[in-house]
Specification:
Blueprint lengths: L3 H8 L16 H4 L23 E6 L4 E6 L5 E7 L8 E6 L2 E7 L9 E4 L7 E3 L9 E4 L2 H14 L2 H5 L5 H7 L3 H10 L3 H11 L8 E6 L4 E3 L10 E13 L2 E13 L2 E4 L4 E2 L30 H15 L8 H21 L3 H20 L3 H17 L4 H21 L3 H21 L6 H14 L3 H14 L4 H13 L9 E3 L5 E3 L7 E7 L4 H17 L4 E7 L4 H10 L6 E3 L7 H5 L7 E5 L5 E6 L1 H13 L1
Parallel strand pairs: 17-18, 18-19
Antiparallel strand pairs: 1-2, 2-3, 3-4, 4-5, 5-6, 6-7, 7-8, 9-11, 10-11, 11-12, 12-13, 12-14, 15-16, 17-20, 20-21
Helix pairs in contact: 8-9, 9-10, 10-11, 10-12, 11-12, 12-13, 13-14, 14-15, 15-16, 17-20
Length: 633
């Protein structure tokens, strides 16, 4: 395999001093030997037997010169470019299915690549290799999804330098004007990454050398405004971000914690930590999302010595939080110590806003302990809730506490249920409590989520009338909330039968697919993801149906909801999936999933030859039955 440096020297023989291309071109065998500087690039290369049939063409325009390599069918594979007319190649471009997916660049024109870019269907990463040794030291552009991918890849490979490239640095925090107290706490979490990484990998079964990054998982990023007094500018933060990894066919979670946007680059504020075993996993709010102190706030108050001492004590406790697989008793002990300090902070608060902020933290700590099985925290939460109702029954804190208490009680009870009958009773109580919550607190911040829970439960129980009522309430009263948008899609899905199926989008290679173009065929639209165990078990049946009815006018259109195009292409190759697939990353939050209010994957729709929906929400057995009926007719 030839290096890019060798190639740069070779390239000079292709161009005369004035920059005009000469007739002689390299052979396909020679030109196809070059490889990207970075290893995680999926690009097309012809089979060994087809290399000699490939074609190399010289290229020139007013600003650039170079040559391109095409496969025997005329699809482009490589393009090598001289952009500054110095007769040396300074861009190495790689293609997949005719689309450029990766590029190495020599921006200082010293015949060595110093930047790498992932493009189009392969993402948006832009890395800087300052010392030109093939290892990226920093990023010019990096999305949150790709930051999680880089972090997990670094952990898997034991590459501390690569991991460091996505961890915050003192310079990063200084550029944001982060206050010293927060900077110190965050930098402690990312210190000595190599040693911390070794410690994590030595104990982990979720994250090993054979693991593979699957996708990024996080709620919407939030904004910590600069007037909170934490930084000189607004902070864009993901709280409690996760990565999903696959190891030996099993999926697991890795906690990424808080992530923050530094310019155009998302970075981690802690070393990734795998969530191990079946123990309770509780992620306490990160440093940046902790309640803001009044220092530098509009009221101009300074922390009292008592508050400074208490907050310092809380930080010390949080720094010694138990490991992910710690026994419940150890977790409860930690939460009890945390709760005791927060109670004192609430008592020492000097403003209503400060008291409310810390009271929410107190409620979170108590409900976490209750969920872990601590009855003492449950009693303390009841006492707190009673006091809130007595002091101000219409306070938003009452609804905040009640909703989290409902979740904690339900989680604790359902986890201890010994049989199906008891589980059903607990479920019925839970639904009744949710209805009461919505009735008593219709305008609460948690009301849309409570209504959505009721709608989903009704739909799963095949009670479409009740599900429609709850979805309709979300649309009418909370239309702009994420839950309201999802409810509108669910109602659209439930009314699809007899209506045209409007659905289209690009496949992983950018080619457009539109169900409307398949009129005259019976079409199964299958929303799926590679992490869905149900879909994995459905694939052999779908493949058999495709083979059985394909020649008789049957087509399948998949809608993949994975995070990366490679997830789709790898899965379809491994499982011999021949039908077209629209790629729409984002899971159930993806636009097409929201458009039809999906509640799970796989979800199957059957569309008739006239382009109208015959059935929606089918199981794989339903599909078998309905296809047999459709083709009998």
């Amino acid at each position: 395999m030839l290096t890019r440096r060798t190639f740069a020297i070779f390239a000079i023989s292709l161009l005369v001093p004035c920059g005009t291309l000469v007739a002689q071109t390299p052979t396909p065998e020679f030109a196809l030997q070059y490889r990207p500087a970075q290893k995680d690039v999926e690009y097309d290369s012809p089979a060994k037997a087809d290399v000699a049939r490939c074609k190399v063409e010289l290229e020139r325009n007013e600003t650039t010169s170079g040559f391109a390599v095409f496969d025997p069918n005329g699809l482009i594979l490589r393009r090598y470019v001289d952009t500054n007319k110095d007769r040396y190649i300074d861009q190495w471009r790689y293609y997949r299915n005719g689309i450029e997916v990766y590029r190495d660049l020599d921006t200082d024109f010293n015949h060595k690549a110093d930047q790498s870019r992932w493009l189009n269907t392969h993402g948006s990463r832009w890395g800087i290799d300052k010392d030109e040794d093939g290892h990226i030291e920093k990023w010019r552009f990096l999305s949150a999804e790709e930051a999680s991918r880089v972090a997990i890849s670094a952990m898997i490979d034991g590459d501390a330098a690569l991991l460091s490239s996505v961890l915050v640095t003192p310079e990063d925090l200084q550029s944001l004007g982060l206050i010293n107290e927060l900077s110190s706490q965050i930098l402690r979490q990312v210190q000595e990454p190599e040693a911390a990484m070794r410690t994590v990998l030595a104990k982990s079964k979720t994250l090993t050398g054979k693991s593979k990054w699957n996708r990024f998982d996080g709620a919407m990023p939030g904004v910590v405004p600069k007037d909170d007094g934490k930084a000189a500018e607004d902070l864009i933060v993901y709280e409690g971000a996760m990565a999903i990894v696959e190891t030996g066919g099993q999926h697991g979670f890795v906690q990424l914690g808080e992530m923050m946007l530094i310019g155009n680059v998302w970075k981690l504020t802690q070393i990734p930590r795998p969530a191990e075993g079946d123990s309770i996993q509780i992620q306490i709010g990160g440093i940046l999302m902790q309640p803001a102190s009044p220092v530098g706030s509009a009221v101009g108050q300074e922390l009292t010595p008592e508050m400074q001492t208490l907050i310092s004590q809380l930080q010390t406790v949080d720094e010694k939080a138990p490991a992910q697989n710690a026994p419940p008793a150890q977790l409860v002990e930690y939460l009890q110590r945390r709760t005791a300090i927060i109670e004192r902070i609430v008592a020492a608060a000097r403003s209503g806003q400060e008291s409310e902020t810390w009271t929410k933290q107190l409620i979170n700590s108590l409900t976490s302990a209750l969920q872990a099985g601590d009855k003492q925290s449950g009693a303390r939460l009841n006492q707190l809730l009673s006091g809130l109702k007595q002091k101000s029954p219409k306070s938003s804190l009452v609804a905040y506490a009640e909703y989290r208490q409902l979740f904690a009680n339900y989680s604790a009870d359902i986890g201890k249920a010994a049989n199906t009958e008891l589980q059903q009773k607990i479920q019925a109580t839970w639904l009744s409590d949710l209805k009461q919550f919505v009735t008593e607190h219709p305008a609460a911040d948690d009301a849309p989520d409570a209504i959505l829970q009721l709608a989903l439960n009704a739909e799963f129980a095949a009670n479409s009338t009740e599900a429609r009522q709850w979805y309709g309430q979300l649309v009418s009263k909370h239309s702009q909330s994420p839950q309201g948008l999802r409810a509108a899609g669910a109602l659209r899905r439930m009314d699809l039968k007899g209506n045209p199926m409007i659905l289209g989008g690009p496949d992983p290679n950018g080619r457009q697919i539109d169900v409307a173009n398949l009129k005259g065929r019976v079409v199964a639209v299958v929303f799926w993801a590679s992490w869905s165990t149900q879909f994995v078990s459905d694939v052999p049946v779908l493949r058999a149906l495709y083979e059985q009815y394909g020649d008789r006018g049957f087509e399948i259109v998949g809608v993949n909801l994975d995070q990366q195009p490679a997830d789709v292409t790898n899965f379809t190759k491994q499982n011999r999936i021949a039908w077209p697939n629209i790629f729409q990353p984002g899971g159930l939050d993806a636009p097409l999933a929201q458009q039809y209010g999906l509640v799970s994957v796989p979800t199957i729709f059957l569309v008739g030859k006239d382009g109208r929906v015959i059935s929606n929400g089918l199981t794989i057995n339903d599909l078998k039955t309905q296809l047999a009926e459709a083709f009998r007719k």
